[in-house]
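Exam revision sheet. Question 4 asks you to relate a sequence to its structure. Input first:
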Amino acid sequence: LGGQIKRFECEEYRWAVIDMRDYTDAIIEKYEDIRKKAVQTSKFPMSKDIRKKEREEYPKADSKVVQEIQAVNGMLIWLVRWTRCDVGFASSCYGSRAIFWDSECEEQLERTIGYLKETRSEALVFRVKKGETDKDWYLTVHTDADLYNPKSQTGVSVAIESRTGTLCPLLNQSNKQSITADGTPAAELIALHTGVKVGTPVATLCTFPNATCVGFGVDNEPAIQIAKVGFSARTAIYEQAINLKHNFTVQLEQRGLITINHKAGKYNRANIVTKVLDGADIKRERRQNGIFPVEEHEGQIRVLGFDYQLKEEKKSDYQEALQARKK
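Answer key, structure tokens:
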């Protein structure tokens, strides 16, 4: 609904563009029609975190306002699900504040719509390096969390990658955690376990050989240590709360079904769906998640802004994951 898939070959890659630019325009038009004014463009989707805080009271909004917000946010969620994970955190915030809508929320929603207007030429792009076979691909899951009171935000990103530049984003998820984490390691651990629940079933749908071992990237060393060591008295309180035993991740790694490695926030694809980012950061992270500007001319489509030079840090990260699988 509202999108097209366009395939072509260019340079060293085969491309598939998930194009929902017309649907993006429909969201902008709907919001401007509701508010009876044109929206100014913006370089980033949010400038302020509007999630509800503990012990703060918010008056309920008028039912008509709630319906209008839910209509616009419903379209945003559909866009996020297919192509634009860069507004995933924003749409999650609007969903939680819809019945407690106020001028602060309205200001941020208008900024998000302005951001879509600024970046309306962007689309989700799959790329596969020519000459690769399915033996060169593997499935990666990046997880991240933003510590917040009362509930932190979990982000999960699932993609098919290769060390020579292939990137096919399959799934992005942003949602509020079910319990209150008392520290960053706890929030990151909850996010990792969510990633296990979301990412490992995807592996059963993939037929390439390396899909039998899913590579997890986590942006927190203490959370990685807990996931690798397993149960301890210090972390026992989290087991029941997140409904997944710590030893489960240990057993998955021992059996070669997953690997868990550190993935710094700057290179973590899930970072974009857990927090408010400024213009420079969100542009960089859009690219990491396969969102690029595209243009069409005389029936031909091409991707703009793609850097064909692979980062050395990324190469070493791929090699580390492959070596872990061989062991």
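Marking note for examiners. The chain has ten helices and ten strands.
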